[in-house]
Amino acid sequence: MNPGRHVCAHVNPEVIEAPPGPEYAPIEAALADLDRGRRAIGWRSVAGRIQLAEACAERLQRVARDWVDVACREKGVAGNKSARAEEIVTGPMATMRYLRLLTRSLREVELHGHPLPPKVIIDPEGRLRVRVFPCPGLFDRLLLWEFQADAWMEPGVTTDSLWSTLRDRLGSTWPEAPISLVLGAGNNSCIPAIDSLERIIERGQVVLLKLNPVNNYLGPIYEQAFSPLIEVGGLRIIRGGADVGAAAMAHPEIDDVHLTGSLKTYKRIVWGGSDDERSRRQRDHAPILRKPLTCELGNVTPWILTPGPYSHRQLMAQADTVAAALTANAGFNCVTPRVLVTWRRWNDQPQFLDLLQHTLDSIPRRPAYYPNALENYRGATGSSAELGPDGSLPWTVLRDVDPAAMPGYFASECFTNVCVEVAIDAASEQHFLDQAVDFVNEKLWGNLAAAITIHPECRWPEPHERRLQSCLKRLKHTAIAINQSPGVIFWMMSAPWGGSAQATLSDPQSGIGKAHGTLLLDRVEKTVLEGPLVVHPNPFWLPSHPDPEPVAWRLLELYHDPSVWHLANMLTAACHHPS
Question: Are 269 and 328 within one domain?
């Protein structure tokens, strides 16, 4: 150990759940390689990291089809065009977008000392809002011209202090690179990749990536796509169960840990395996893991549907949008809507719910590949359901649910194909949104993401807009989408993603710290995305799109090579509808 770099002095051996043996040899070998890599100077400069990011983008493009093929095969959706398009978006495409945007920001750091955001706004209260979407360089303004997103900075952040932590964030003060353990997510294939890339290319660390057993199949793909990082000693990948992860966390060479997983996993690795042990340790302020930890732990994601003068087309489009969010990745996303919040006296409520169910009925079921999906489904529905012949479960929306009748559903994220609707008894349309915000803040676990559907006419005159802005401010969530899924905020890659500044080890809520965010912003309170009720042309991520896969591939090609030629190919594919 080099005494000049940050090392946590307290390593509790109780974290090891099995005695070290031959099965842990890969950890020792990987850490020995990373120990050599962290001492290298050349690749850790900003210029060196730019070269690595560009090299990874090239290798990624070569393996993109293999990446999607293996993910779809393992999830049992190889012949499902919509599912394949999703895997493109949430795998190689999101990763490519992250690499391109981060490369641009690092070039701006070289030239100007910090990234150049599209716009910095001062809101009526004097607080900064930084425009994080659309991003320059990737034709966002043309392809998604109706979308924009702002990062709301914490109170006290000024234009002068916006980049005050950038030097520390880039790891410029470290004599040697810390070794970070990344415990990979098991659901979306881009998450372990981007969590690792962030630490290596953005923060100048070296990474031991431990894959989740659910998607161990990604190992060979990652080893090809990120071979430039492996070659310089910046990345090593290991596989195994919880015992391997526990042994890696306890290893003295590991400086910090990042987890993307469930609150249950978090509690086990930080506070212990039993309720009694966790209570004792929290009372004594004695966590098992005593190394710096960041994490993203999911959310009971609400979607608030405000009443308004919607046309039938607008209701259909929003039903399509909600259905896409419900069924994406077979419902195994941390931003999957789990609770729809409606006004009980909303005249269009029955019509909207009928349109949503009709849309869900038209979407092919997918295998429920994630562990415990069937048990979670039975628990949420109170049924004795069985998996279908293809291993699937039905897309299910339970209407007019009383939260008191199933409190467990609202208190923890239910990873399965179930969403519930809760009707709020507000005195008027104007009071509904305020009461809906109170409900989700007080009754739903987590603060990661939320969505609001609102008609443009309900934002004017000015007092209505002020009420909406007040509700956005009061919502505890760090990613809020208007008229679209908050998953779009994640996919943008330019916005920070994760927990709030109030998170603690004892009460992490949806997570501690934030991930990615290619504008390299710190002290972001929340990101708010605004989108239209109806997107033009019909976006390929909606289930109503007739042929989404070619569009997704063209978008990946555009991000790989942002040129007018690939833009033309992308627009042609987006506008082509097979007969």
Answer: no
